[in-house]
Design goal:
Strand content: 15-25%
Shape: globular
Radius of gyration: 16 Å
Number of helices: 5
Structural class: alpha+beta
Order of helices and strands: HEHHEEEHEHEEE
Helix content: 25-40%
């Protein structure tokens, strides 16, 4: 994890210096801690309600929502969960880095060549700040620093609005997998050298 943390720090330093000369950042990406789990769950609950209102069935399984608490603790323990906060420390978004999901990615995909993006959630109060795009850009920078070619996602198969969102950010649909025990499986990837908002990098590392 030491080398990876260094890569995250270099990503912040290399991309944030010039923009910080123009204005002080108001959002910070930092590793999530165990005490952040209630805030992460609140972000997820809000997202569930918003998705339901939009007519999608994503995250409508309440049992899955309950399991999210233990999953988030495990992800935090592994150093793979991150949270975006504002100057006051209020949570604005979260994202996790996942392991290779063998339900979806096989050896022909060269799975080690990618950064796997999971659980990207943005608070409704932060809509309009383009946090989703900026978080994906952060992942691209980390992937590039690690010598990886891709940022990859798997999303809910029926959420066509989300598919369109990622395509607008430069993701290309790879294929759709539909294992019977999973409801995600729309697979897409974006080259790690693609940056959607080069002039709006997220600051990294503020506590």
């Amino acid at each position: 994890m030491g080398n990876l943390s260094a890569a995250w720090s270099r990503s912040s330093q290399e991309t944030g210096t010039r923009s910080s000369m123009k204005s002080m950042p108001t959002e910070y990406l930092r590793p999530a801690a165990a005490e952040d789990v209630p805030a992460l769950m609140a972000l997820r609950t809000e997202a569930e309600q918003w998705l339901h209102a939009k007519g999608t069935d994503q995250w409508n399984d309440r049992e899955a929502g309950a399991r999210a608490i233990s999953k988030w603790h495990a992800t935090i323990d592994d150093g793979r969960a991150w949270i975006v906060v504002d100057n006051s420390g209020a949570p604005l978004a979260t994202v996790s880095r996942g392991p290779i999901d063998r339900d979806f990615w096989n050896d022909d995909d060269k799975p080690e060549s990618a950064f796997y993006l999971y659980k990207l959630i943005v608070a409704r109060s932060a809509a309009g700040r383009q946090l989703g795009a900026r978080i994906v850009d952060w992942a691209s920078r980390v992937a590039a620093l690690e010598g990886r070619d891709w940022v990859r996602i798997d999303t809910w198969r029926t959420n066509t609005g989300l598919h369109a969102y990622y395509e607008r950010l430069g993701f290309k649909h790879v294929r759709t997998e539909a294992p019977s025990h999973r409801r995600s499986g729309w697979l897409a990837q974006r080259s790690s050298d693609v940056i959607a908002l080069p002039n709006q990098p997220l600051a990294v590392g503020r506590n």
